[in-house]
Write a structure and sequence with these properties.
The protein is an alpha/beta fold. It has helices at residues 21-29, 43-52, 57-75, 101-111, 147-157, 185-189, 193-202; strands at 15-16, 35-36, 81-90, 93-95, 115-126, 129-142, 178-182. Helix 4 crosses helix 5.
Amino acid sequence: MTEPYSVWTQDLPLILASKSRIRQELLQRAGLNPDIGTPNFDERSFEAVLRREALPIHERASALAKEKARLASHVFADHYVVGADQMLTCDGIILHKSVDLSEAKRQLAFLSNRSHQLTSAVAVAQNGSILFDHTDTADMTMRAMTSDQIDSYCAIAGDALYQSVGCYQLEGLGVHLFDRIQGNFFTVLGIPLEPLIGFLRREGCLSL
């Protein structure tokens, strides 16, 4: 088996404060090979505070990403720690990951034949201080789907329905759900990758 290549030049590994499979894979494919270090964080309670403050969606996503990075950076001293978050809004309504099949089908029926916005945020912290943050938004137009088509999609997707907001992974089966996508591919996948890599390069963390 081929050993993973690395462009990371620091003695301490990069830390990803996220359990997201696709975020981890994207950073690995870019040669950053992060360790996973998720903080003890009540995301829903923190988000409720942001909602009461009536912050714009991009500020909420940014605040969540920064808080994840900041909390994890207290545990992983001196490491660069990456936090990320993604929020989906449709007709002014914020959607979250579905918890069961019936909720997933309702969410897909709601998104069917509508446009929605995916806002992704990334932040880097070190020793409790935020060094970098960036947000970006993609516009997604889902095709019209019948209930039978939604049932078929859910049957094929299986547990992947519950792994992302919107019940789709664009890098796989989810591409069948869309008529139009406007925005950066990495933003859709949940992490604005080019700005993050640009920051890490300016910090002298990369060999390329």
